[in-house]
Design a protein that fits this description.
Length: 616
């Protein structure tokens, strides 16, 4: 495919002045990968750092070899399902077989990547909702236990025809070895005929939903190709690049935004161990791996940027690195600036959603970073801010953001879940409050929909609130997101006890974990209140609770550094969202801070993705 380097909105307008076929040459992911293999056959496509301590354990695939594995997986899935369309559920970490299975499944039928950290019951609900008839899961493994859930899934999901285990050294009963099955496929060509159009269903990616009502977002081949190819143009990516991708591959960022985009460009994709950035042994070796593989682009979330600030690179060179791209949760401008200052690596921000194959807008590498900006919408994609009366906002005027374009999917598999998100006119409502400026740049200033985003994982507060209300002593409950230096945001809850009842917060935390299938949705803390704040019409006033939670977090953080008595902390609700106001305090009045106090406060607040001011 022909590359397009994007620097400004004018470049996007030039792209859009030609037919879409000039921009997107392929209708299916398989055909796009085959095209890349024809152009870059002997170049490295995929490198797996199996053990950062043992360079010899690294595994590599050229583009030609990578495509052959994808085709073998597709042939295997097709053969195992006979005349039935393969629908393949994937319970795999960030290993090469996940990519082979993902795009093999999309070539033969439909892929359904699933978060392996979910409970067995929730995974079973997702498998049933997807109509999966095949399951590919990590076999027994000393670093990550996924396999212990498979027996329960077989019992709960009678539609599953076969189970394939990756790394099945112990020959687990009732499972075929995935690698052996692929090796048994003869030849490197597809053994079946299938017509795939741009609107053909490729995958079902789950997003935040309550137990018993899974939310599976539909991706067509065209959706995925548009997001991935457009992202590559924003990155100015080509075959000289090497991308280190520590995202989980059940997430759109790991599989599409950084994965497929890399492979469509002829670049090399590096997977950093089976556990990725959750590997405590790998993180201290991060910069060493970057140097060893000549990495040019870092794919990270803001929390990893923060983590890397405290990782000593020692003698490892970062000379090959030209940029760090980040998304999944809000990017604090101070964190981006601090990372750039320390490492000399430009940081660029991304706004994405599962419902649009992972990308809404990106800050182009060839442009400068603008604090607070999420960059330009993808080519052929429209992003608007809409006022409460439905009118489109003027440039710079805040409203609820919506988008429309080739990246926007057809909606959820359960059409009843579309209300408020997918409109019948092709628009996707992001739920974010923000604006689009006169230069076409997208800015996020708040959130309209009631959702908590923990490390790029969307959590519906209702999931937590329903679990809390199961307790006989809870009269009212509300869950909100509290800022967190590592995860961006974590769930916390506020409850009101029934008259005469006594609640112990830790016991209530233990109770609700039994009813919340998603471990990231387990509340970090539960606070007891005499009453919940209400609006004039009697609804729970969530902004008030979010402000309360935010001030608690900041106060605790200042206390931990021993400066809580020196800083006055307050909060304010602005039209654009909540903001924290800090000022040096001598116990009586606001004073000018010392240089040491000023540095400490700025360092602390740089780690939080919240608006704040510091009177200095």
């Amino acid at each position: 495919m022909r590359s397009f380097r994007i620097t400004s909105h004018a470049d996007i307008e030039r792209i859009e002045s030609s037919p879409y076929a000039d921009y997107m040459a392929h209708a299916s992911v398989h055909d796009a990968l085959a095209d890349a293999a024809s152009r870059h056959g002997n170049r490295l496509a995929l490198t797996f750092v199996a053990d950062a301590d043992v360079p010899a354990a690294t595994q590599r695939w050229t583009y030609r070899a990578f495509l052959a594995e994808v085709r073998r997986a597709a042939n295997a899935f097709s053969a195992l399902c006979d005349a039935e369309e393969p629908r393949v559920a994937l319970l795999l970490p960030a290993i090469p077989q996940m990519y082979f299975a993902l795009w093999g499944a999309e070539t033969a039928g439909v892929a359904c990547p699933i978060n392996y950290l979910l409970t067995t019951d929730h995974i079973a609900e997702l498998i049933d909702a997807s109509g999966a008839n095949l399951l590919v899961a990590l076999g027994p493994h000393p670093e990550l236990d996924i396999w212990s859930r498979v027996a329960g899934l077989r019992e709960r999901c009678p539609r599953l025809k076969r189970v394939l285990a990756v790394g099945n050294a112990h020959r687990a009963e009732g499972a075929d070895d995935f690698d052996d099955v692929l090796a048994s496929q003869r030849g490197d060509a597809l053994a079946f005929d299938r017509t795939i159009r741009a609107d053909t269903l490729a995958a079902l990616f789950h997003t935040g939903g309550t137990t018993g009502a899974p939310k599976l977002a539909q991706h067509s081949h065209g959706n995925q190709l548009h997001s991935a190819w457009s992202a590559a143009q924003m990155y100015a990516m080509d075959e000289r690049d090497v991308v280190i991708n520590g995202f989980p591959l059940f997430h759109v960022a790991g599989s599409l935004v950084y994965g497929l985009s890399t492979l469509l460009s002829g670049a090399e994709l590096v997977l950093p161990t089976l556990l990725g950035m959750r590997n405590a042994r790998f993180v201290p070796r991060y910069w060493e791996v970057v140097e060893r593989h000549g990495v040019t682009l870092l794919a990270v979330v803001p929390t990893i940027l923060s983590t890397l600030m405290s990782v000593d690179p020692k003698d490892a060179s970062r000379a090959s690195v030209r940029a760090a791209f980040t998304g999944g949760s809000p990017l604090p401008p101070e964190l981006a600036a601090a990372f750039e200052a320390r490492y000399g690596v430009p940081v660029r921000n991304i706004l994405g959603m599962t419902e649009c194959a992972g990308v809404v807008s990106i800050e182009p590498f060839l442009d400068v970073r603008r604090p607070g900006s999420c960059g330009l919408p993808l080519p052929f994609t429209r992003v608007e801010a809409v006022a409460g009366d439905g009118s489109v906002c003027a440039p710079g005027e805040p409203g609820v953001l919506r988008l429309r374009g080739p990246n926007v999917g057809a909606g959820y598999t359960d059409a009843r879940r579309n209300a408020g998100t997918f409109g019948g006119d092709g628009w996707l409502v992001s739920g974010d409050i923000g604006h689009v400026d006169a230069h076409g740049l997208v800015f996020i200033t708040g959130r309209a929909k009631d959702v908590i985003i923990r490390g790029s994982h969307n959590i519906e507060p209702a999931l937590i609130e329903e679990a809390l209300m199961r307790h006989p002593d809870v009269q009212f409950a509300a869950a909100v997101g509290a800022p967190d230096e590592y995860a961006g945001e974590v769930p916390v809850a506020f409850v009101v006890a029934r008259p005469g009842a006594s609640i112990e917060p830790q016991a209530l935390l233990d109770f609700v974990r039994r009813y919340i299938a998603e471990p990231p949705a387990h509340p970090k803390r539960i606070d007891l209140l005499d009453a919940l704040p209400l609006t004039a019409v009697g609804k729970v006033y969530k902004p008030g609770l979010r402000l309360r939670a935010t001030l608690r977090v900041i106060g605790d953080r200042l206390e931990r550094d021993g400066i809580a008595g020196d800083v006055r902390v307050s909060g304010v609700e602005r039209p654009s969202g909540l903001a924290v106001e800090l000022a040096a305090n001598d116990g009586v009045a606001i004073v000018a801070p010392s240089a040491a106090l000023d540095a400490k406060v700025r360092a602390i607040m740089a780690g939080f993705a919240i608006a704040w001011t510091w009177t200095s």
